[in-house]
Amino acid sequence: MEEFPLIVSDLALILVAASVTTILFKWLKQPVILGYIMAGLVISRQIHLTPDVADTANIGTWSELGVIFLMFGLGLEFSFKKLLSVGRNALIAAVVIIPGMIIFGTLVGLVLGWTLTNSLLLGGMISMSSTAIIMKAFDDMGLRTQKFTQLVLGVLIFEDLIAILLLVIISTTAVSKSFEGGQLLFALAKLSFFMVLWVLSGIFILPSLLKVLKKRDILNDETLMVIALGLCFLMVIVATYVGFSSELGAFVMGSVFAETVEAERIEKVVKPMKDLFGAVFFVSVGMMIDLSILGEYTLEIVVISLAVVAGQIFFASCGFLLSGQTLKTSIQSSFCLTQVGEFAFIIAMLGTNLGLLDKYVYPVIVAVSVITIFVTPFIMKSAMPFYGFLDRKLTPKQKLFLERTNLNAGVSVHNENMWQQLLSSIFRIVGVYSVIIVFVLLVYCKYLLPMVTKMGFWPKTALAVATILVMAPFLRAIIAKKNHSREYKFLLASNKTNIAPLMALSLVRFLLAVFFVVFLLIKTYNTATGMLFALATILVMAMFSSRFLKMYSIRLERRFFSNLNQREYEADKQIKAGQVFRNARLSSRLQAYDLHLSSFEVAPDSPVCGKTLIESDFRRKYGVHVVSIIRGPYRINIPGGREQLFPADKVLVLGSDKQLAEIEGMFQSKLRVGEEPLNQEVSLEQLEISKFNPLVGKTILESGIRDYNKCLVVGIERDTESMMNPDVRTQFQAGDVIWIVGEKDRIRELMNTDTVSIMESN
Fold first, then answer.
1. pLDDT digits (tens, 9 = 90+) for 268-279
2. CATH architecture, domain 577-667
3. pTM for the complete prediction?
């Protein structure tokens, strides 16, 4: 009973301090994350002039919840399909940036005299930029519509993946406190296995479950939030149980939900809790700052901050240039990545708690993050002046050398090796289905088999048969998938020398399926006889020839892909530029003319709302083209000129950065020049018509009350008779009391046409 008031007082102190600093930093136009960190520093025990938190253990628990919510939110924004859609350019840039910054950060740490472990983790932490800070800066500076922002977003997605991998490595090496190759490989294999298993099972089950609940009209916001958070914490428990961090479990569940139709709703209903506990997390980060350490390590903080800015600009510029971007786009993109993100806090906190990092590293990296986040807007604004300086200083030959990779951007020769296509498809199929089968075998051997072993031969045999039936569709897929594909037929028909390797490939897949069945039988009967091998071979051959299993496996696969693509079919999703313009030559030409696609949402009071495309005249006024209009679940591609724009429509527009920046204001919610906001309320009032009123003898329609005065006659009292919703052909008579609905100013204008009496309606 004594702890309850303590928890409440601590939480009240945190939220009040966070509120004050948030208002202050909003007024200063700085990221609120800095405000939260400052609030934590103010209420820490190092500042004696302000109250401090009484029970830091509770704050630690809340901050862990904050990390879980943050990782779940990042997973919702992540989406494995989005990873595939960001394309080759972002991947090439990330391959240069992330290893480059890790190596550079490690060298900086070693030069500063840090240990190898501290230096390696320092390199990992400074290699990841802040998605939240960058997206906020894009919004504040009006850069969301520009082409380079998609490249930056793609790099951030890959950095999130590396951060997850670092969390796994930290957890794995916590005991040995060294990076051992065997442990690392085992950790990567284990991570890959469970990631594939979780994602496959989640995409197969979750969308169908949500669809059933929605069809029965029980999936309101409250239910959706409880389901989402319940499954999130369940995955946290599962991830912790199998040896991973709770952060990984939250991220995986968020990424699975990101593939469902309800992703946007989940993000919306979870956002208040994510913001609340996220604020507590960042406040706790500020509370862990040791001012004495900051004073002692001032030089290190300055050096690392400079290394982050300089290193990100250099490696990111090189990465984007190598990916085929122009010098201008490369400079714009690289100047956005010059800050240490929130993932660094999570990695530093985990490393410190597990004893891998010295205690001084945490406050140092927080201070570096604060400095780099603070200077981010200024660095982003300096990108174009710096590009202008380079453009003036570089000779045409030097610029041609830097942009040489851009000359052939987007041009590819469609002459891929058939063997490569076939083998990559088969390896992917075998890998995915093997993960499912291995999971079934693990459950069978570890949990089910020990339960029935003591029951005798027949219960054990029945369990083995049931398990083989569960595995059968996946075993058949391993054997038979791609045997009738275009690549397989081409290789079989084009050259007789391909027959032998194709047969060998089929044999290897067949033997792998036999191995899985033999393994189950050996574990069941605790013996390895030739009869078991023969039985396994017969069973696998029966699976291969079964038409029922073939159709069943196809149905399972179709259901999986249906769930995977359900969001695209039903959700209000934008088209990516690479999905609309797939032709390589067209992409190359668009890039040469600095054209790209961007989407805008039509605000209810925007200048174009309610107008047709002909009336808006985007092409003549701005030089852009409207490619698609997305309206709820419907998509209007290449719309005609008479197509109207309605509130909440998402309009996909093709144009250059300059053109798209000019047109953005046409879709935004703002008042026209010289107009005042319409804030007048509608009231119900009574008017008595005198015998001198010009309305006498006129019908409601002839009076023009609705057309000219914008008022509505809803009732007429005449002697003892009352007429509700009178017909427009009803004539006014002297002595009538009419009930009018409208704005008060409009009603008073109507009164001033003649001497009438007015009675306010009670």
1. 888 888 888 888
2. 2-Layer Sandwich (3.30)
3. 0.64
